[in-house]
Structures are given as structure tokens and as C-alpha cells.
């Protein structure tokens, strides 16, 4: 064969050429992934349909474990807590991030790298460390109560994480602290990419700050909002570490969440089937919410 | 045109959020250097000089020397295994076509949203059956599997974007797929690979639930697990607790500050669907 023919043959085929050898490259990853992720997930689904204490023989449960998610108050509460926490873990960070992006879309910021690095910092700390730090802030003699007393609001001071009413919002605030920087960094990056002419045009049309936000900033940030919501919702629903280290679900079960309930049931009270059902239900919830987010925010594209 | 007032307000708000982001961090740092005799469970300011001895105490009394060693070992193996396996698989997904490749790739991407809570229960019983709980394997294998979802997704994006012409040129020079990958694409893809390495490092280092479930003996505890137990036993010892927290957070924070751009890109990139 002449070189040119060879060249042409390769050009037509490579890359993206059919190659059975691709399977060989995928195989090692697939084995580990299937054995330690896909297969256990399948087992979880199976376990969710049995009653099992982890020791004796499992007995079929039908949909009992799933029905209990609705009928058993101690299982319903963790899901309600999780949904409420999403206000703190996802909605608030996105709202605050948007507010700031709206302000900053009009100003060119110096020292952006510094602000971005610091604001994103909470994301990279181990949640266990975050929990330890916030326990100190929310402790009876912690920073928050000290601050309240200092400004004469000592009457509001309380052991935040041990209070039946306030423990859940208190844990929520920690989640807001973790998530806000992520959203701000995303939106600031997005806002700086919105063409300035759009703002000038809006102002020529006599738009005030609110209209400017609604017609220019918000549509311009759509993709970033979708990413931010997806990330924060998934992280919020998966969250185990923070609850474990700050409240262990207490007081009572005031801060119990599905992630914690899985651990508690499977490894502390020997209700393995029920724990698996909570895990599977959590997976479905995450899936439904992420699909909803991309439908709602990305609109036509979904 | 933006007014001076607008500018000031903007910087003022940025400064406010910077303070909010830093307060818990600085509080922990300051407590870590504080006196151990302080009974305050909140933050404290170091009085009478910096108590560097807190770190030594956390190291020896809290056994953080052992925990850090375990964390280094587990993280190094998970990161190395994830990198090699993800590069190989993503290469095939990115530049080759074969029946079922789309389905297989989606199978990997599912792992990005699948919560650990839906895996950890059977994993524990499987690994206990195989007598692997309380071993490094029980930490390494599940975490490698979970990191692969991001790794394969991230590296496939790189391979798809890597120049066609480069691959063609390599082929014409007689390179087979294996040589093309390791001699041409991997050296070119160093930025993408290091992003993946850094993200996997952070996730593995900070991982808690898997360690909590898989490890009951002290010899195999990783640092986040060590901190949780340490808090259970010494919750009144704020200075030691804070010093231990600093020891745990420091490696990730150092890498983060050095490579912050790559870090943020990677973490956000993992969630961006095509």
C-alpha cells in the first residue's frame, strides 16, 4: 500500500474508530466499579425487601420496609428534616450567591483570586473538622452566645445543638456556611462572563436594578444556577458527617436525617432491611430532585 | 458606569462574607494554640504564648501519628489506583467506538449521584464475610470504586477534547493504542490528570462514613475517624481537639491554596453534565 493510502485509511478511521480493544481498557475499572459500587447497590435493593437483623436468616418483607417510610413517624421525620435542611443547604446558599452576583455583576473586582480562594475554603475542609469548629461556635459558652450577650441579647442565648426547636436550624446554618462559598464562586465567575453591553442596553431601556437583575443577570446565570443547585442538593441529602459529629441525630431525633438513619438502623439497632430501604429511597429522592432541578432551571434544554 | 458608592458596598459585602468564611477557621487555629487547662468549650485565644505542645500531644496522646500514617497510605493507594484505572477506561470511552460504550459510560456516571448510604450496608456485610473489615482493603476498594465515577467522567472529557490530529500523527508514526496513550496523551494531559488527582485526594482524605463502618480497631483508623473518637473521649479538651483538627485539615488546605484554580474547576466540573 502506498503511504498516502495508509494515511487516508487512518484519517477516515481515527479517532473514534471501532476497536474491540476498548473493552480491554475499560475492564479493570469496570471490575472494581461493578464489584464495589454497582453490585452493593443491587444488594441494597434486595435487602430493602427483607427483614434482617444482620445475624439470623433473612425473611421476605415485600414492601413492608417501604410502607414504613410513610407510616412510621421515626422514619418519616428524617426525610422531612432532610427536605427542610435543603432550605439551608441549597436554597439559602443559592439565594445569597445570586444576591451577591447581582451586586458584583456591575463592578470589576480586584483581588478576585483572593476572595474566591477564601470563600471556597469551607468546601475543602473535612466535614468532621467543620463540625468540630461549629460545635465550638454553637456551644453554650461558644462564640454565638458570647456575641449575643455582648450586644445585650443574652436572653436568646441557648445550647443551640441541644435545643429541640433550634438544633435543626443550627445544623442548617452550618450547611449554609459550607455551601454559600461554592455558589458565590460559581455565580461570580458566571456574572463576569455576562457581556457588559447587555447591562448598558437594559439601562438605556430604563431598567432599574431589579429589572436589570431579572432580565440580564438571572437568565445569564442559568447554567450556573443549575450546577449550584445540583451540587448543593446532592451534598445536602448525602450529608452524614455533619450530623454525626454535631448532634448524632439528637436531641431525641430532632436532627435525624436519612443518611444518619441508614447508619443507625444498620449498625446500631440491627434493622438491616429497613436501613437498606432508607438508602434506596434516598437514592430515588436524589435522582428525582436532580432531574427536577435540571428541568426547571435549564428549561428548554432538558 | 459604576459609582464609588456601589464599589464600596460591593467590597464591603465581599469583606463581610470573607470574615464569615474565615471565623470558624481562625477560631479553631486560635484554640489549637491555646492553653489545655482552659475549660471553655468554645473558642479561646492563646494566652501566655503559643502552645505548640498541643500538636505534639494530639500526635502522641491522641494517636494522630498512627491515624495520619493510615490516611496517607489509604489515600495514596486510592489516588494511584483511581488514576490508572480511570485513565485507561476514559481513553477507551473518549477515542474509541464499540458497541455498548454509551451504556457503559452512563453506568459510570451514575456513580456521581449515587449516595454512599445506598452502598455501605451491603458493603460492610460483604467485606466482613470476606474477612476484610478492619483492613486497609476495606477502605481502599470501596473508595476507589466511588472515585472512578468522577475520574472516568473527567478524563473522558479530556480525551474527547485532545486533538484528533495528535492521535492520527501518532498512529501514522506506527504507535499502537497503548503507546499513543502513555507516550502522547498522558504527558499532554498532565493538567487534567492533576486536577483529578487533587480532587480524589481530598475526597479520600476527608472520607468519614466508610471508615466509621469498616474500621472498629484503632490500628486502622484514618484521621477523620480519629477526630470523631477523640471528640467522644476528650470533648472538654478543646485545645487538643482543635490541634487535631488543624493536623487533619492542613494537608488539604495547603494543596488547595497552591492549586486553587484547578481545584475549584475540578469540583465544579464533576457536576456539569454534557
From TrEMBL, chain B:
<feature type="transmembrane region" description="Helical">
    <location>
        <begin position="136"/>
        <end position="155"/>
    </location>
</feature>
<feature type="transmembrane region" description="Helical">
    <location>
        <begin position="103"/>
        <end position="124"/>
    </location>
</feature>
<dbReference type="Pfam" id="PF00528">
    <property type="entry name" value="BPD_transp_1"/>
</dbReference>
<keyword id="KW-1003">Cell membrane</keyword>
<keyword id="KW-0472">Membrane</keyword>
<keyword id="KW-1133">Transmembrane helix</keyword>
<comment type="similarity">
    <text>Belongs to the binding-protein-dependent transport system permease family.</text>
</comment>
<feature type="transmembrane region" description="Helical">
    <location>
        <begin position="238"/>
        <end position="259"/>
    </location>
</feature>
<keyword id="KW-0812">Transmembrane</keyword>
<feature type="transmembrane region" description="Helical">
    <location>
        <begin position="12"/>
        <end position="33"/>
    </location>
</feature>
<dbReference type="InterPro" id="IPR000515">
    <property type="entry name" value="MetI-like"/>
</dbReference>
<dbReference type="InterPro" id="IPR035906">
    <property type="entry name" value="MetI-like_sf"/>
</dbReference>
<protein>
    <submittedName>
        <fullName>Carbohydrate ABC transporter permease</fullName>
    </submittedName>
</protein>
<feature type="domain" description="ABC transmembrane type-1">
    <location>
        <begin position="68"/>
        <end position="259"/>
    </location>
</feature>
<feature type="transmembrane region" description="Helical">
    <location>
        <begin position="192"/>
        <end position="215"/>
    </location>
</feature>
<keyword id="KW-0813">Transport</keyword>
<feature type="transmembrane region" description="Helical">
    <location>
        <begin position="67"/>
        <end position="91"/>
    </location>
</feature>
